[in-house]
Specification:
There is one protein chain. This protein is α/β, with parallel strands linked by helices and 357 residues long. It folds into three domains: 76 residues, 434 Repressor (Amino-terminal Domain) (Orthogonal Bundle), CATH 1.10.260; 123 residues, 3-Layer(aba) Sandwich (Rossmann fold), CATH 3.40.50; 130 residues, Rossmann fold (3-Layer(aba) Sandwich). The protein contains 14 helices and eleven strands. It is elongated and about 85 Å long.
Length: 357
């Protein structure tokens, strides 16, 4: 019978290319202002609606070349799955909600968290929705998401030791992960930075430079990372026989003018502080600028250890002592842990404590 197989294979390949070309032509003909649907994709490809639906879900029952052809048509037509339909079919929204107070967030925190979260969600089918809230009612967005089930999982930040949001999410069986630890008594998924290790290390670095009067530009009282930071700071001072130099009532959430005025007053004190530990890039820059305005010199009259979130701090003052905390890495880990929580993994395996670098 000769050797017809190679010719037949070549003919099949030609038909496949023709089908792909015809699909492209059909898509271009059908593109209108109306949103593409499964039915219109079926008309474009000449396939049944059920076949198109299965192909988009990568069903193994559909041939690989058919799946590729359907996805090509969907991509060219700008098809997006109807979330309402997906929710009715699967009970899921394919949405995760990042709930945070943007006013109280550290400089650069929101952007880097979102970048990291987006990277971890890429390719998963999940979409990120950022939900801001006012400090006066931090429970409002939590109640809304839970009551409407408008997300499959929630991420919250700026945790408190006994956080009512965490208790509410647990009671209502909503998957979640927190940026920061709590002590609510129930295990839950979290990603945190070891602020006790950061502050302890910072005191040691200042003591090594001979600094004796060290002040802490602290996180806001009442938040979990305030207590962790204070724990490490106090331990570092005790081990070296040093006392804290009080900076007054300012913290990293204070207004810039308040921090500046306090720094100018500190510069005039006879036994002023000669070392600072700071948890905020923005407040570090404010403090240094004010002390230099008063005639003091960084690296000579005083030293500062600060958290570093960006390379800008190295350029701002090379004399700064920097300890890196990656909000982008935090975002990636939060995305990973939340997806695992949504999938039902045990909370004990979803607890990440990132170390200072």
């Amino acid at each position: 019978m000769g050797q017809p197989v190679p010719q037949f294979a070549a003919l099949q390949k030609g038909f496949s290319r023709l089908e792909t070309f015809q699909t492209t032509v059909n898509v271009r003909r059908s593109m209108t202002s109306e949103r593409p649907t499964l039915r219109s994709l079926a008309e474009i490809t000449g396939l049944a609606v059920s076949t198109v639906s299965q192909a988009l879900r990568d069903s193994p029952d559909i041939a690989e070349d058919t799946r590729a052809r359907v996805k090509l048509a969907a991509q060219q037509a700008g098809y997006l799955p109807n979330r309402a339909g997906v929710r009715l079919r699967t009970g899921k929204t394919n949405v995760v909600s990042l709930i945070l107070n943007t006013e109280g967030s550290a400089y650069g925190l929101v952007e880097q968290l979102v970048f990291g979260l987006s990277e971890s969600l890429n390719g998963t089918g999940y979409h990120l929705v950022v939900t801001p809230y006012m400090l006066s009612d931090s429970m409002a967005p939590i109640r809304y998401v839970v009551d409407t089930r408008s997300a499959d999982g929630v991420i919250i930040a700026r945790t408190q030791p006994d956080d009512p949001r965490v208790r509410y999410l647990i009671e209502n069986n909503m998957p979640f992960a927190t940026h920061g630890r709590t002590s609510v008594g129930t295990e839950h998924a979290y990603v945190d930075f070891d602020n006790a290790a950061f502050a302890y290390k910072a005191v040691g670095l200042l003591a090594a430079r001979g600094r004796k009067r060290i002040g802490l530009l602290r996180p806001p009282a009442g938040l979990s990372f305030y207590y962790h930071t204070l724990e490490g700071f106090s331990l570092g001072l005790r081990e070296r026989g040093l006392d804290e130099y009080p900076l007054g009532d300012i913290d990293i959430d204070s207004k810039i003018d308040e921090v500046k005025q306090r720094a100018l007053a500190l510069a005039r004190e006879p036994n002023r502080p000669d070392g600072f530990v700071s948890s905020s890039e923005l407040m570090t820059m404010t403090m240094i600028s004010a002390l230099e305005e008063a005639g003091l010199k960084l690296g000579s009259d005083f030293d500062v250890v600060t958290k570093q979130y960006s390379d800008f701090m190295r350029w701002f003052r090379p004399e700064l002592i920097l300890i890196h905390e990656s909000h982008r890495e935090t975002g990636k880990e939060l995305g990973r842990t939340l997806l695992a929580a949504i999938n039902g993994e045990a909370a004990q395996s979803l607890q990440v404590l990132l170390q200072p670098e």
